[in-house]
């Protein structure tokens, strides 16, 4: 069934946007592909390009129509403009003498790939609507129309204001349906309906799936209903990841690796009480915050060996575990504030070796923390202290601190690489 996902997939960066040679085999080393491919010779400069002999591929490149045989002047002009001469009308193998079904064609290319004919593109007017969404192809975004925003707000406000009566499950279900219908245009939409879904599921379970029964709402659901502002747009282009990160969790701590750097650390006393799935989500959160703290507008591929954590991240939460949903929501909100977008992917445990090792081996065994009551006495004597020079997210005594290894909230890494003259530092001596 066609939907917004179809439009999104059709507008990926391909040869239409001169994104490179994706879809073409340049000097392919495998003879079996060369034997079943069409050969095109380009003139600026001369490049040998092999295009696989599949009708769908050739049709997508517009190589089936002879511009001289076209009765449409606009199509003929567009074909001549892009410099592609289409004389191929059937599939077959070129014997190499230029007399086969695939005759040698001289194709004018641009600086970064073959130009597709202009008629292949969809030229939308500003504000065109597809499936109820406003499409902006210039910015590659979907926008939620104003009247839909107004209806969503009216539904949510009606339930919030009616404090004297518990809403029926039918009303909550209708609101959730509307949230779901716009989830592809409102990025953070699923982040603000998890508690509503859990409350509705609980009410239906207690009342034999009767939607006319009351649906008591928790405080978390009320807070979700107060959400009225949206980042009203979502990029349609699924860009290749800018950063690839691997993370893992154990009962001891968390570990991560990205672009040649590794880090990790132990769990706090409170964190050790969490479920293993929450361990994995928390490890992913700490990993993202460590390697993306100064990054914005990035597409991130996050590799995990826990299927549940992958699902909670990709679905922006879930309905089973409130704690896991909270961690996933915190992760997404942190990313969206920086316009970073996450995609989680499962990585088999046997391949997640580095992150797994980091989560089990606590290397900094000299990381001790001075008794907080004693530190408060020191701070009373030296109130001007600004930076804890040797600390971690679990042992820092001051809001600002330097860590030995990459840390999710540390200001800098490795105190010995920093200029101590610029800060008023406190150094806790290593334990013996």
Structure, explained:
The chain is an alpha/beta fold and 432 residues long. It folds into four domains: 4-120, no CATH class; 133-235; 243-360, Ribonuclease H-like superfamily/Ribonuclease H (Nucleotidyltransferase, domain 5, 2-Layer Sandwich), CATH 3.30.420.10; 372-426, no CATH class. It contains 13 helices and 17 strands. The chain has helices at 4-10, 31-35, 55-61, 73-82, 146-161, 169-181, 194-206, 219-225, 276-291, 307-314, 322-337, 353-360, 372-381, and strands at 25-26, 37-42, 48-52, 106-107, 129-130, 133-136, 141-143, 234-235, 243-249, 253-258, 261-266, 299-304, 341-346, 387-388, 400-403, 412-413, 425-426. The protein has a five-stranded mixed sheet. It has a four-stranded mixed sheet with strand order 1-3-2-4. A four-stranded antiparallel sheet has the order 5-6-7-8, with no helix packed on it. α5 packs antiparallel against α6 (169-181), α7 crosses α8 and α9 packs across α10 (307-314). The longest helix is centred in the middle third of the chain and has 16 residues, at 146-161. It is globular. Mean pLDDT is 73; it is low at 12-71 and 74-123. It comes from Amphimedon queenslandica (Sponge).
Summary keywords:
432 residues; alpha/beta; Nucleotidyltransferase, domain 5; 4 domains; five-stranded mixed β-sheet; four-stranded mixed β-sheet; 17 strands; 31% helix; globular
Oligomer: single chain
Helical percentage = 25-40%
Radius of gyration: 29 Å
How does the overall form come out from the CA principal axes? globular
- Average pLDDT taken over every residue: 73
CATH class of the largest domain: Alpha Beta
- Supply the CATH architecture of the largest domain: 2-Layer Sandwich
CATH superfamily of the largest domain: Ribonuclease H-like superfamily/Ribonuclease H
Q: What is the N-to-C order of secondary-structure elements (H for helix, E for strand)?
A: HEHEEHHEEEEHHHHEEEEHEHHEHHEEEE
Low-pLDDT ranges: 12-71, 74-123
Q: How much of the residues is beta strand, in percent? A: 15-25%
Report the count of strand segments: 17
| Strand line-up across the major sheet | 11-10-9-12-13
Q: How far is the first residue's CA from the last residue's CA? A: 66 Å
Largest sheet: 5 strands, mixed
Organism: Amphimedon queenslandica
Protein name: Reverse transcriptase RNase H-like domain-containing protein
């Amino acid at each position: 069934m066609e939907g917004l996902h179809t439009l999104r997939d059709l507008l990926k960066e391909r040869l239409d946007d001169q994104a490179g040679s994706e879809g073409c085999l340049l000097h392919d080393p495998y003879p079996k592909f060369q034997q079943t491919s069409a050969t095109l010779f380009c003139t600026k400069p001369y490049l040998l390009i092999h295009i696989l002999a599949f009708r769908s591929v050739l049709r997508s490149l517009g190589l089936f129509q002879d511009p001289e045989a076209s009765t449409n002047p606009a199509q003929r002009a567009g074909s001549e403009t892009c410099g592609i001469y289409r004389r191929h009308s059937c599939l077959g193998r070129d014997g190499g003498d230029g007399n086969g079904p695939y005759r040698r064609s001289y194709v004018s290319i641009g600086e970064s790939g073959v130009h597709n004919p202009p008629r292949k593109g969809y030229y939308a007017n500003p504000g065109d609507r597809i499936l109820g969404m406003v499409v902006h192809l210039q910015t590659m975004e979907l926008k939620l129309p104003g009247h839909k925003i107004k209806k969503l707000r009216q539904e949510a406000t009606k339930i919030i204001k009616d404090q004297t009566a518990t809403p029926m499950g039918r009303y909550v279900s209708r609101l959730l349906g509307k949230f779901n219908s716009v989830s592809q245009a409102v990025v953070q939409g699923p982040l603000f309906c998890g508690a509503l879904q859990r409350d509705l599921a609980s009410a239906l379970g207690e009342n034999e799936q009767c939607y006319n029964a009351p649906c008591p709402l928790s405080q978390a659901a009320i807070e979700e209903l107060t959400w009225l502002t949206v980042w009203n747009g979502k990029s349609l282009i699924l860009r290749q990841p800018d950063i690839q990160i691997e993370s893992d969790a154990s009962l001891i701590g968390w570990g991560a690796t990205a672009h040649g750097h590794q880090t990790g650390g132990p769990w706090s006393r409170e964190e050790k009480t969490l479920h293993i799935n929450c361990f994995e989500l928390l490890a992913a959160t700490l990993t993202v915050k460590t390697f993306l703290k100064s990054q914005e507008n990035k597409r991130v591929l996050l590799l995990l060996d826990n299927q549940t954590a992958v699902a909670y991240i990709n679905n922006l939460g879930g309905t089973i575990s409130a704690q896991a949903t909270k961690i996933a929501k915190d992760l997404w909100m942190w990313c969206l504030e920086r316009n970073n977008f996450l995609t989680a992917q499962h990585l088999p445990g046997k391949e997640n070796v580095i992150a797994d090792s980091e989560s089990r081996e606590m290397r900094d065994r000299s990381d001790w923390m001075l008794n907080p009551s004693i530190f408060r006495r020191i701070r009373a004597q030296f109130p001007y202290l600004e930076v804890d020079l040797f600390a971690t997210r679990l042992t820092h005594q001051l809001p600002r601190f330097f860590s030995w290894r990459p840390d999710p909230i540390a200001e800098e890494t490795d105190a010995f690489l920093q200029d101590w003259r610029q800060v008023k530092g406190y150094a806790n001596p290593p334990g013996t």
